[in-house]
Design goal:
The complex is a heterodimer of chains A (192) and B (75). With 192 residues, chain A is mainly α. Chain A is 65% helix and 0% strand. Chain A folds into 2 domains: 97 residues, no CATH class; 56 residues, no CATH class. The longest helix of chain A has 23 residues. Chain A starts with a helix and ends with a helix. With 75 residues, chain B is mostly helical. Chain B is built from 3 helices and no strands. Classes of the chains: A mainly alpha (192), B mainly alpha (75).
Chain lengths: 192, 75
């Protein structure tokens, strides 16, 4: 399997690795979700201790889900900061717990995972070739094209209007070929 | 060889999962639909040996389609 991945670095870097990390993140979030004391009490003690450790080290899964949802839907956060009413005093600040130790453990865990992941650090070595050759023009072209298509989705209200707007963008920018990227770079939009 | 065989089977497997998920709920059907699109695109990109910019463009289009579906709802 690893030999096959080595022979297909683009597949590995652009699909397999992000998908594996996303699935791993989902599993971690499931492990680290908030539980009631009753739920912990029903578990074997070592399992309960491990899950408490996980939920202490890794970020709050509820906040992660809220942030992802907000990013996707452009909706306001589910727990917005409200303004103070007349006569209401500012509550005292809640002291933050010392997060140094969990942060160090988190960094060690990330380092361990990265060092165990084949090819992830490959391009850091001085004599190692890059898995994917850098292509800043192609990346810029795709970033601007995707942004313009997202603008179409944001500004129009019906599917027909959105699809027509996106078709215009697709006709005007082609980032899939070298010629299309070169034309984009030569254009005014690509030069800025 | 085994990896190639598994990759060849994945699109039809995801197609079956999508149809089953659509029976459960529209949301599950949408998730399965985009999972199928992503996997199918990844396998096709690997077979065709697409350049990185072409892969980025394909992923970008799948993402914008998903945002559009989220905004307008699945029909």
């Amino acid at each position: 399997m690893f030999t096959w991945l080595e022979a297909h670095p683009v597949f590995y870097t652009m699909f397999f690795l992000p998908l594996a990390l996303a699935i791993g993140g989902g599993i971690f979030n499931a492990f680290a979700r908030k539980r009631t004391p009753e739920e912990y009490a029903a578990m074997p003690q070592r399992v309960a201790g491990f899950l408490r450790l996980m939920s202490a080290i890794f970020p709050d899964p509820d906040k992660t889900r809220d942030a992802a949802k907000q990013m996707m839907t452009n909706a306001p956060p589910s727990n917005p900061t409200r303004s103070l009413q007349a006569g209401e005093s500012v509550p005292p600040p809640i002291p933050k717990p010392d997060t140094t130790a969990p942060l160090v453990l988190l960094l060690v865990a990330i380092g361990s995972v990265l060092s165990l992941t084949p090819y992830a650090l490959c391009s850091c070595g001085p004599n190692q070739p890059a898995l994917i050759p850098p292509n800043p023009d192609g990346a810029n072209c795709n970033a601007k094209k995707t942004k313009r298509e997202l603008d179409c989705v944001e500004t129009h209200t019906t599917r027909a209007e959105i699809d027509a707007c996106r078709a215009d963008v697709k006709r005007s920018i082609d980032c899939a070929t070298d010629a299309g990227v070169a034309a984009f770079v030569a254009s005014k939009e690509g030069g800025t | 060889m085994i990896a190639e065989t598994i990759l060849g089977l994945l699109p039809s497997l995801f197609g079956a999962v999508r149809e089953a998920a659509a029976l459960v709920s529209p949301r599950a059907g949408t998730i399965a639909k985009y999972a199928e699109r992503f996997v199918t695109f990844a396998i096709q990109a690997e077979k065709d040996g697409l350049a990185s910019s072409a892969i980025l463009q394909g992923i970008g289009e799948i993402y914008v389609d998903l945002v559009e579906d989220v905004k307008l709802g699945v029909q």
